[in-house]
Amino acid sequence: MSYKDNLERSMQRFILIAFVLIAALKTESYPCTIIMVSGSNTALAGSNEDSVFPLTMVWYVPASGNYYARVCFGYKMIFNSIQGGMNEKGLFVDGNSLGKQGWKQNETKKTLIGPLLDMILATCANIEEVKEFFNTYNTPVLDQARIPVMDKSGASMIVEWYNGDVVFLETDETYQVATNFVGSKYIGTEKPCWRYNRAVEHLGTKDSYSVEVVRDALDATHVEVDNSITVYSFICDLKNGDIYVCNYHDYNNPLKFNLKEEIMKGQQEYYLGKLFGDRSVEYEKFIEEGPVKMVEKGYNNNINVAFMFYGILSTNYPKAFNKDIGINVLSQAGMNLFGMGKIDDCIIFLERNVEVFPDSARSHFELANVYLKTNNNEKAMAEYNKTLEINPDHREARLALDNLQNR
Q1: Reduced to 3 states, what is the DSSP secondary structure of residue 171?
Q2: CA 316 to CA 304: how far, in whole Å?
Q3: 3-state secondary structure at position 406
């Protein structure tokens, strides 16, 4: 097989793995809120990104060939997974996740190569060009998402799939709010989302708009629940190219950047956890608990995705937070599976923990206990012995081993 063939096959495997990981993140509909406001001298777009994934990032991509320079926000996966951003032409784009909408391919349209949001920012300068983009390409992302867009003129729209076609939902108001429902279904009727209604109530009382108004609206609609937390927020001033970033729903301490100034520094990427030095107690807890939640989220797809997430977290946590994810992640996830009666998968998790932490008495002891409870006595004895080799003073392992040998 030629080098070119090997390269193509490697790229195909890479794309497949990347698709699986992104699909795993999209199995739940996270309650993100996007707010777009305009005035005679104002075009502002803000976003709350709600998730449980701790590896949040911002990165800058210089112009190249026919592609525009852009700032992107999202997550560190095998590659950077864009969730929203702005380009040098003052175009903003983001996304709201949805349940399946029954999207169908149009045979007359082209196949899109590359991440949807990044391709829009790279190739479109305004709303009309975004419309042409969706009229040109098949965009299967619309099966499970709607795409809010705004340009520096103040024009905005939400692109969604409704009644068997792509719809460009526009408004005559000076503001437009996007949350996690198909707006075309609810034109002229009450909207089924408290975040949407709260944002509209907040914006509807304003005679003019500012960064502070958008920030307060994002604050009023942020979430803090077990399965979804506002992990970051950003506001784009589309006329001036300024970006205001808030980390982990802390709206009192934003950082301000300018796209043109940042692009002059070349291609860059930053973990938001590094940009914001001061961490609240709540954020530290989120960082600590995040890996277990992400591994369990991966497991909800299948065990291989769980270990893919584990590998990504293991590699990138030291870069993002100056700390390893530690022995507790596979241990806790495995024991949670044991509590659910998924014994075989629990053992796979704990066996992997022993592979990763072979010199830990705890990893061997926990695996020994599960072997014992499942009557794998020979394996249990081997793991208790290994525990005692590492820690001869481990009383629980000594007692369990004595009991096994005296049976």
Answers
A1: coil
A2: 19
A3: coil
| Residue 17 in domain | no
Task: Please check the confidence at residue 348 and state whether its pLDDT lies above 80.
Answer: yes
Range of the domain at 393: 290-405
- Cα distances (Å, whole numbers) of residue 236 to 195, 256, 268: 20, 10, 18
pTM for the model stands at 0.89
CATH code for the domain in which residue 388 is found: 1.25.40.10
Angle (CA) 242 34 298, round 5°: 110
Lowest mean pLDDT among 7-11, 258-262, 371-375: 7-11
Q: Is the pLDDT of residue 289 over 70?
A: yes
* DSSP line for 327-393: THHHHHHHHHHHHTT-HHHHHHHHHHHHHH-TT-HHHHHHHHHHHHHTT-HHHHHHHHHHHHHH-TT
Name, in order, each residue with C-beta under 8 angstroms of 375's C-beta and a sequence gap of 6 or more: none
Q: Of 248, 268, 245, which is closest to residue 55 (Cα–Cα)?
A: 248
Distance CA 213, CA 371 (A): 58
346 confidence band (pLDDT: 50, 70, 90):
very high
Split into its structural domains, the chain has a count of 2
Are residue 300 and residue 246 in the same domain, yes or no?
A: no
Which of these three, 263, 281, 299, is where a domain ends? 281
